[in-house]
Design brief:
The structure is a single chain. The chain has 186 residues and is an all-alpha fold. The chain is built from nine helices and no strands. It has two domains: 47 residues, Homeodomain-like (Arc Repressor Mutant, subunit A, Orthogonal Bundle); 125 residues, Tetracycline Repressor, domain 2 (Orthogonal Bundle), CATH 1.10.357.10. The chain is elongated.
Amino acid sequence: MTSVPVERAIRSDARRNRARLTEVAAAAFRDEGLDVGVDEIARRAGVGVATLYRHFPAKTDLILAVMGAVLDDLEAGAAKALKGADPERAVARFLRSTMALQCRNRGFLETLAHHDLPAGVRDRLSRRTRAILEPVVAAGHATGTIRPELDAADMLVVVRMLGVVSSAPRRPAPDRYLDVLLRGLA
């Protein structure tokens, strides 16, 4: 008789601790950069360092959890933009929400762009991002708001361009740049 492994349910306090660590890390990375220590993150989250390491064995795991949350928000923004009325405005709605997301996560995203991630991690994040962008690009192709030769990799460059606008110390009217990018896509 073979036994089937039983998947252990994650306790609710463990889920709360993981969520709290990710939330505190996101704020710390955003405000202070990726150099903030894990001991300090654990202290701010109100948990022990052992708890942090149980959830995130390496600091890179914590960074990836924060980036995963940002990508979850990007994915939600894409879904919302695509479900909205007036399909011709879907790409504009998506880029506007992306700009807001980048403004909220400015320090983290800037630092992440200059941080050395382990081999393959940056590629994995890029693949997930392109997968999020593909339906937006398809909607843009269908409505003529994105030229047919442009793909998700091109849209990723556009998203990065919006990141520059969102990270400017004295942000000029972002709608101006959004309009420039939308005209360029069409």
